[in-house]
Design brief:
alpha+beta, 4 strands, about 40% helix, elongated
Length: about 80
């Protein structure tokens, strides 16, 4: 049996991306102004990539296959 589940959490994706990008800049040697500019650019790039799977930056669909015992993230629009 296969079925889909859509999960919605408006803050989790934003918080995770912000945290990951901030961590990637630790020890970069950039001054505060440069680091902020790079952070904003990188956050936007990651959010754009995540939009492949997240609708409106908050909804994620997965398909669960009980026979194969798998769970797969579903691309938007499929």
């Amino acid at each position: 049996m296969k079925f889909r589940v859509t999960m919605k959490d408006p803050d989790t994706l934003h918080d995770a991306i912000d945290e990951a990008v901030e961590k990637s800049l630790d020890g970069s040697g950039l001054d505060e102004e440069e680091a902020q500019a790079v952070l904003e650019l990188r956050v936007e790039k990651v959010r754009e990539l995540a939009s492949k799977w997240f609708e409106n930056d908050e909804c994620l669909a997965v398909e669960i296959d009980t026979e194969a015992k798998t769970c797969t993230v579903v691309e938007r629009g499929k």
